[in-house]
Amino acid sequence: MTWEVVSGPSDEPITLSEAKAWLKVDDSAEDALIESLISAARRKAEQYTGQLLLTQTVREYFDGFPPYQIELSFPANSITSVKYKDETGAEQTVSSADYSADIVSKAPRIWINPDKAWPTTGSYPNAVSIEYSTGYATASSVPDTFKTAICLLLAFLYENREDIPISGSNDPRVRSFNLILHNEKTMA
What we know:
Layout: E1 2-7, H1 16-23, H2 31-49, E2 56-62, E3 69-71, E4 78-85, E5 91-93, E6 99-102, E7 109-112, E8 128-134, H3 144-159, H4 172-187
Helix pairs in contact: 2-3, 3-4
């Protein structure tokens, strides 16, 4: 299984003004840098927790249909499509009337309805693709723990612009970032 972001978030969990307040920056000389660091810190938080924070469209790939159900990697807001490559390599779409989706469970899943069968796929890698929406609907609905962790890492990145490893850092902000997100990851 592999996945890709088809459509990224339209905003970030924290605004530029919130970031500048956290960093105690009053001028606009480094706004572009701060905005890029906000995005980098969000992506690091997503990587660490395995959860995409803001509404994004994801396409997840599988080598074939499993016997019963497909488990998705991220919480799902909605399923856009289930597609597959047939034996000739042509992409086909599974009718939404043929499958059911459970987007409420912690691990969302899709299964074929009892009176249907998954179609036969060709012998291609990533023959099945599922496109779906994931993430919190708005920046204001992202939990404050994520926002605080992002601000901690943002401050660390802003103050330490040289090439340094984040994962092995003894900086208290990085340790706090890791601790906060570890707790969110285990509670999710």
